Every structure is written in C-alpha cells, then in structure tokens.
Amino acid sequence: MLEAVIISSAKILLLVVAVLTGCAYSTYMERKVVARLQHRMGPTYAGPYGLLQPLADAVKLIFKEDIVPSRVERVIFALAPVISFVPALLTFVVVPFGPEIELFGHTIQMVGTDLNIGILFVFAVTSLGVYGIVLAGWSSGSKYSLMGGIRSSAQMISYEIGYGLSIIGVILVANTLSLRELVDQQASFGSWMIWRQPVGFLLYLTCAIAETNRAPFDMPEAESELVGGYHTEYSSMRFAMFFMGEYANMLAVSAIGATLFFGGWHGPILPPVVWLVLKVVAFMFFFIWLRATFPRFRYDQLMNFGWKVLFPLALLNTMVTAALVML
Amino acid sequence: MTIDTIIFGISAVVAIFSAVMMIGQRNPVASVLYFIVSLVAQAVLYVQLGALFLGAVLIIVYAGAILVLFLFVIMILNLRGSEDLGTGSPPLSRLTKFLVAGLFVVELGFIVRNSVFSNVSTGVVNLPESFGSVEEVAKLIFMKYLYPFELTSILLLTAIVGAVVLAGKKVLQDTEGTGSEKDNVKPPAKEVKS
Questions:
Q1: How many C-beta atoms surround the C-beta of residue A102 within 10 A?
Q2: With 50 as the cut, is the pLDDT of residue B187 above it?
Q3: How confident is the model at residue B182 (pLDDT cuts 50, 70, 90)?
Q4: Who contacts B29 (Cβ-Cβ below 8 Å, separation ≥6)?
Q5: Residues 6+ away with beta carbon under 8 Å from A91
Q6: Of A83, A258, B5, B20, which sits 20 to 30 A from B31 (CA to CA)?
Q7: What is the rounded distance in angstroms from the CA atom of residue B29 to the CA atom of residue B32?
Q8: Residue of A142, A196, A160 lying closest to A310 (CA atoms)
Q9: What's residue B119's pLDDT?
Q10: What share of chain A is helix, strand, coil (3-state, %, to 5)?
C-alpha cells in the first residue's frame, strides 16, 4: 500500500517536472527555430546559446504586476488559466515512456497509470481544455477576449469530431484502447501504425494543430485582428499559465501522436525515454515549422475545412479501415 | 474506512452540491460550470463502479461537447444575470411545475424507502472481471439491444434534420428573394456558420 503510494507519487512528480521543463524549453526551441527560419539569431544573451532564456522569462513574468481589470468576473477570471493548463498536464499520465523496469526489487511500469481505456481518457481530458480558453474570453469582460473565446469554442466543436474519428482507425487496427498495448504492438520500425493508417495520421496531425490553437489555425488568439484574443486582459503569471498551457498541449498531442503512430518509446541503442523525447521534439519542430511557413486561415475557411473536408475524410477513413479489418 | 469510501464520499457530495448549485445560480455561466463539476464527479462515481467506459464517455460527450455548445450559446446571447431571464411564469405553468416537482419527490421517497428501509439484503455481488469494459458495452449495444440502439440513432437524426430545417428556413427564403429580383438588390449576407 505505502509502496504503491510512494511509487505513484514519484512518477507523478517526475512527470510534472518533466512537462514543466519541456514547456519552458519548447518556448526556447520555438524562438530559436523561428529565428533561424527568418534569418535571425534568436535569444543569445542569457547563458551559452541563450539557453537560460526560459529562466529569465519566468523571472521577468513573476515580477510583473498582476493586473485584474475592474469589469472581470473575478473567480472565473482566476480559474481560467488553471483550467487551460491542468488537462494538458493530465494527458501525460497515460503516456507510456518505457518498458517495465526492476528497481530496488519492485517491478515498476514506466507509465503514470496503465488504464485499459487510455485513449478515451486522453480524449476526455483534452476535451475539457477548451473551457479554460472559453471562460477566459467570457470572464474578461472585453470584446476582443469574448470574440477569441467564441471562436475557440466554435473551432473546438468543429475539430473535436475529426480528432476523435482519426483515432478510431488506429483503434480498429490495433484492437485495443490501452496505450501500453498499442506501443507494444509497434515494437519494430515496420510495424509503426503510420504505415497502416497514413490517412488517419494526417487527419490526426491536422486536427491536433487545430485543437492546440496553433498557426495556421490560431484564430482564437489572432493578434492582428483580436489583439491577444482570449488572453488580452491577462498579465504576469496568469498570462504565463496560458502560455504554458499552450505548450503543454502541444507536448501532449506530440506525445500522444508519437505513441499512437510512431511506436512510442521503441527504438534501437538509445534508452526508451530518449526515443520518446526525440519523437516529441520532431513533432514540435514540425509545429514550429508550420507556424513560420503558413499564413493564418480566414475564419469561414477554417469552419468549411473542418466540416466539409476533415469530417467526411475522417468518416471515410473509418469506414475503409473497418471494412479492411472485417476482411 | 478505505480509500474507495473516501473517494466515493467526496465525489458524491461534490456531485450533489454542484447539482443543487447549478439550479440555484442566477448567472447562467456559473450554472454551466457547476453542471460540468457535477458531471466530472459523476464520472468518478461511474469509474468506481467499474464502468470505466461509461465514465469516459460521460466526460467526452457531455462535458466535452454538449456543454461547450451550452456555453457557446450563452456567450453569444450574452446572458449575464437575472435581468435577462424574463418575467415569472403564468399561474397555470407554475402549477404544473409544482405538480411535477411533487411527483418527483414522491418517487424519490419510494426509492429511498425501498433501498434503505426494506429487508432486501444489499450484499456484495460478484461481477465478472470484464464488467463495464468497452467490449461488454459493445456486445450489449450491438448484439442484444441492436434494434433499440439503431432506432434511437434514427430518432436523433430526425431531430437534427428537423433543427436544421427550422433554422435554415429564413436563409432559404432570402436567397430565393434575391434570385427573382436579381440586379437592384444587394446579395444577402453570407449564411452564418455555426
């Protein structure tokens, strides 16, 4: 009993520290990569190669004044950043990051908890993330924020369906909902799920970008039209929470994507955790690359694309996969 | 007192408290928030009963999709408090409300009497290992109750088509109107996507 509690607590602590560090260095990576793509240097002053920049940012944000505008709904205004950050953090609980290991005579599974409905858990948790953004937009009592919040909820409703359906193909092929079993099935390079579900992967990727509100789907925070969108009225650490929430979300969809389609922690020579991190970094690089390359969609294009292209494609993919599995 | 009992106690209290608060709020957004909290607590209860799948689906469908829609509508109408909720209802509908509420209380009383004060033993029932798993639920839905399930889906589809027809009527008429008058009328505003 006590052992189980200690092991779980240690795992959770490790996960939280890892995700927070990951968030911090994702911002660094984003700045560096975007700078390189635009022929700039990016951060260089804080530490060697600017490596301490995330730390400097954090210190700066903590010392900023925390401004609460007079017309906000106080409780919800304070809750919203937390609501947008916590679901992203929760997703990592079911991501497996290694095989079972023996440590001090205990068999430890390298996963937060091995739920047999792992994938459903991921969807349940990520579907709650939208509330942070919507409530932030609503409680700020500002027009720009409200527009951002409304856009966000409309976008989430449109892309959630495609997101869910894109995974159904994988579930059908793998015949399991447990992420650990899914990873076990993709032990070798040839058995990666992406070879069996290429369309599913493309759909997943597109919807994941839309779900995390990244460019070119970053309508809720389109700075050229909505100032800052839902976080216009936020400052100091509350703003930083949203920022971290966005990056934690990106990391989450990357980790899930790597687990579902790229064999999770499996890989030669290097230790399993390193392989998972490498795959996540590859995903992140792709997201940043997209942001630096594509202009933003117009709002009606976004909705059209979601309902008239992604949704039918996802349905078709599900049907074809189901038929093939039956045969 | 095991951990299970503690978790059950907390989530049961939270579920009921937030359900009551949901009805008692003046602010519609706060109501929706309490609704979500209540749903999450209920999902915990489902998971404790071994119905993992039901718990997850409750969150995905209800909390994740339907309530976002609720919130979306409330935000678009910008309901902020009691002044937007209209005047009191007429006497007849108020009477109906009280009648239905009274019936509900009586029903609740029967349930409490039958479960708490009856002699039926509430011993532990041994469930099979796979109880509540996705496979078992799927077997029930797609084999035992296939026809009711399909009928329900058709019913829902009818409702959706009906809603679209009702909502789309005005837009259709508008486009026909401009079609006949052609040149001197500005093209109608683009159909609102929702």
A1: 8
A2: no
A3: very low
A4: A73, A76, A135, A138, B71, B74, B75, B79
A5: A122, A125, A126, A252, A255, A256
A6: B5
A7: 5
A8: A160
A9: 62
A10: 75, 0, 25
What does pTM read for this prediction? Answer: 0.80
Q: Is A20 helix (H, G, I), strand (E, B) or coil?
A: helix
Q: What is the pLDDT of residues A237-290, one digit of tens each?
A: 888 888 888 888 888 888 888 888 887 777 787 777 788 888 889 888 998 888
pLDDT band at B151 (very low <50, low <70, confident <90, very high): very high
**Closest by CA position to A146, among listed A236, A227, A238:** A227
CA distance A53 to A44: 8
What CATH code would you report for B1-82? 1.20.120.1200
Are the beta carbons of A127 and B194 separated by less than 8 Å?
no
Encode pLDDT of B105-124 as tens digits.
999 888 888 777 666 655 66
Could you tell me if A93 lies within 8 Å of chain B, comparing CB atoms?
no
Phi/psi region, residue A69 (left: phi>0; alpha: psi -120 to 50; beta: rest), is beta
SS3 state of residue A268: coil
- The ipTM estimated for the assembled molecules is 0.78
pLDDT lower than 50: segments of chain A: none
Which residue ranges make up each domain of chain B? 1-82, 138-194
A256's tokens = 């899930």
Q: Given an 8 Å threshold on Cβ–Cβ distance, is B193 in contact with A300?
A: yes
- CB-CB under 8 Å, B75 with A134: yes
Please answer whether residues A61 and A242 qualify as being in contact, where contact means their C-beta atoms are separated by less than 8 angstroms: no
Q: Could you say which residues from 178 to 197 on chain A have a Cβ atom under 8 Å away from some Cβ of chain B? A: none
Query: B105 vs chain A: nearest CA distance in angstroms?
Result: 33
